């Protein structure tokens, strides 16, 4: 529901960023267990960039309504929280995998 002028510039950029993020997320299950924590770190960086872009759009009143922005921001916040939890899980579980037992 962007304004006409913003639909083709900022809207296109946001759609590209979201599509890139979704494609990246879709590769998560193909990774080896020891690669997942680093993957989550990279993913969190991309999420942060998208959050900044969305907040800028809200400040510039690009979204047609606050409700539209809030719904998108809420979904992105949930994805960020899930990624943080996965990162912590794989950082913690990776300590005793693939090597010798601690001495």
Radius of gyration: 17 Å
Distance between the termini: 59 Å
Q: Order of SSEs, N→C? A: HHHH
Gross morphology: elongated
Helix content: over 70%
Looking at how many chains there are and whether they match, the oligomeric state comes to: single chain
Average pLDDT number: 86
Our count of helices gives: 4
Low-confidence stretches: 96-103
Instruction: Find the structural class using helix and strand composition.
Output: mainly alpha
What's the total count of β strands?
A: 0
Largest sheet: none
Beta-strand residue fraction = under 5%
Features:
4 helices, 71% helix, single chain, mainly alpha, elongated, 103 residues, disordered C terminus
Q: How would you characterize this protein structure?
A:
It is built from four helices and no strands. By secondary structure, it is mostly helical.
What can be said about this structure in brief?
The protein has four helices and no strands.
Task: Annotate the secondary structure layout.
Layout: H1 4-7, H2 10-26, H3 36-59, H4 66-93
Helix pairs in contact: 2-3, 3-4
């Amino acid at each position: 529901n962007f304004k006409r002028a913003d639909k083709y510039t900022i809207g296109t950029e946001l759609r590209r960023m979201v599509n890139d993020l979704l494609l990246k997320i879709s590769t998560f299950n193909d990774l080896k267990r020891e690669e997942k924590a680093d993957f989550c770190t990279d993913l969190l960086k991309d999420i942060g960039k998208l959050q900044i872009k969305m907040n800028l759009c809200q400040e510039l009143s690009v979204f047609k309504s606050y409700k539209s922005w809030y719904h998108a921001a809420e979904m992105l916040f949930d994805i960020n929280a899930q990624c943080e939890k996965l990162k912590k899980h794989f950082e913690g579980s990776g300590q005793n995998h693939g090597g010798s037992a601690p001495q």
